[in-house]
Every structure is written in C-alpha cells, then in structure tokens.
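User: Can you help me understand a structure? I only have the sequence.
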Amino acid sequence: MRTISLLLLLAALRAAPGQQLSGDDVLRKAEHNFEGLQDYTVTLDIVADIERMKVPPMHATMYFKQPEKVHFDAKGFVFLPREGMGVQFGQLTRRYAVDSMARETVDGALRYRLALHPRDEKALVRRVFMWVDGTRWTPERVLLPQPDGHAIEARFEYLRTGAFWLPASLVVSFSTAARDTTVQPQDNNPFTGVAPMMQRGAMRAGTVTVKYSDYHVNTGLPDALFQSDAEKHR
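Assistant: Let's start by predicting it. Here is the structure, written out as tokens:
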C-alpha cells in the first residue's frame, strides 16, 4: 500500500508544474519563445479571397525588426492583415492582460485557451482569444470578436528556423455580420488591412492566406530601412 501511495505521489509531483501554470505564465512563455529574435527578412506569397473583390496573387518581401517595425517591398499594394505580419508575439505581456485560461486538447495536443483584453483602453477590439501550444508555446490561433458583430480569426502554422519557431503560413478569416453604421473603422483595429481599399468602409467576408519562405534571421537590419521618405530627409 505504501508503494502504491508513493507512486501516486510521484506521478502527482510530475504533473504539478503543468497544472499550476496560470494564464500569465502561459502568456509569458509564448512571449519568451521569441526572445533573442532581433530581426528577420522573409518572402511572402499572398492570396486573398474576399467577397466582391478581385485581388491578384501577390509576392512581397517583408522586413521585421524589434520591437514592432515592419517594412514591405512589393510591386503595387500589399493586401495583408496588419496583426501577425511581424512577430508582435514578443510584446504580448506589454499589450495584453489575461482574464481567464482553460486547457484544451486539439488533435491530441495540449493547448491553452487565453481570454485577453488590450491594456490600451483606446483599442477598438476589447476582447481577444488566443490558443497557445502547450509544447513549443507558439500562438496557434487568435480570435477577435468585433464590436459590430464581425469576427476575425488568424490561424498559424510554424517551421523551425535556427533557434526559433517562425510562421510558415497564416490564414486570416473575416466573418460577416449585419453592418452597424454607428461603428467606424479605426486605425487601432489590429487586423486593418494594408491595402487602401480595405482601410475604409465595411469589412467583407473572406480569407487572406500568407505563405512564408526563405527566412534570414538576425542579420542586423538598419533602422533606416523602416523610415519613411519624409523621415529620411529630415
């Protein structure tokens, strides 16, 4: 009987660290996953399927530098969801506070479901749901309910690049809802598209799929790369 009790005690002690994680712990782990990532360059292939819009496939180069500097090289406009295009996941605890956490199993893998709210009281989106992988601590899915009844969802797949798990693909889905004309688009909507045609007016249903390839990490990108023409000539 003592042997069985001892085995049960040891099993409980082994399980305790995972069970004792708080929502703040999970958010910090997701943030720490990107520690040491200073900058990267990556090639993007983008396909947008948006209702009542014809958007050709796009090819671009994205430059990212901490904390949240992003620059694109492309011919014409680039139709992209702003959130997730750089790894702002390195700023999670600064940008969000945790309201609650739940453990879920998705395809046999443990995920933590976090309910968050932005620390910025002026942010249009007041509720964010994030699912974090319980092994590699990468944000796998982000859901943003909108004040007008729309919902925006981002799903990530990752690849190992050196010491980091970086996005291999991103699919952002925009759901429809009855339009509320009292709600106006704001620049602090974290999924506002880069394309001018989507920065004004009602959000439309559809998806934007981004494939990432040819990463170059921590090459020392200069700050001047992220400056506008006006800033360069000051």
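Now, to help you interpret it: The CA atoms of residues 169 and 211 lie 5 Å apart. The mean pLDDT is 79. Let me know which part you'd like to focus on.
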